[in-house]
Write a structure and sequence with these properties.
Keywords: Ribonucleoprotein, Ribosomal protein. InterPro entries: Ribosomal_eL30-like_sf, Ribosomal_eL8/eL30/eS12/Gad45. The chain has about 80 residues and is an alpha+beta fold. The protein contains three helices and four strands; from the N terminus they run E-H-E-H-E-H-E. It has a single domain (about 10-80), classed as Ribosomal protein L30/S12 (60s Ribosomal Protein L30, Chain: A, 2-Layer Sandwich), CATH 3.30.1330.30. The relative contact order is 0.32.
């Protein structure tokens, strides 16, 4: 999330279900996971990303991840869609 607009410029899917679906379909370029997200979800997406060779970047809170994605609520995880 190096630019000032965070993830807003990239094609991003937000949320656990959408993120996991993209990883399973081989369409996720990178996954962002909030460190304060529910452990059950985090461990599930970590296993999927490991299996499919997708890089995970950790963000300190769900609030910060949601803000980086341009939404007003927290997000447990988000994925950048491969172009």
């Amino acid at each position: 999330m190096s630019n000032d607009k965070g993830l807003q410029d990239a094609h991003v899917k937000i949320g656990a279900k959408q993120t996991m679906k993209l990883v399973e379909l081989g369409q996720a370029a990178e996954v962002f996971v909030a460190e304060d997200a529910e452990h059950r979800l985090v461990s599930k997406v970590e296993a999927l990303c490991s299996k499919h060779g997708v890089k995970i970047t950790y963000v300190d809170t769900m609030h910060h991840l949601g803000k980086a994605c341009g939404i007003e609520v927290g997000a447990a995880m988000a994925a950048i869609v491969k172009s």
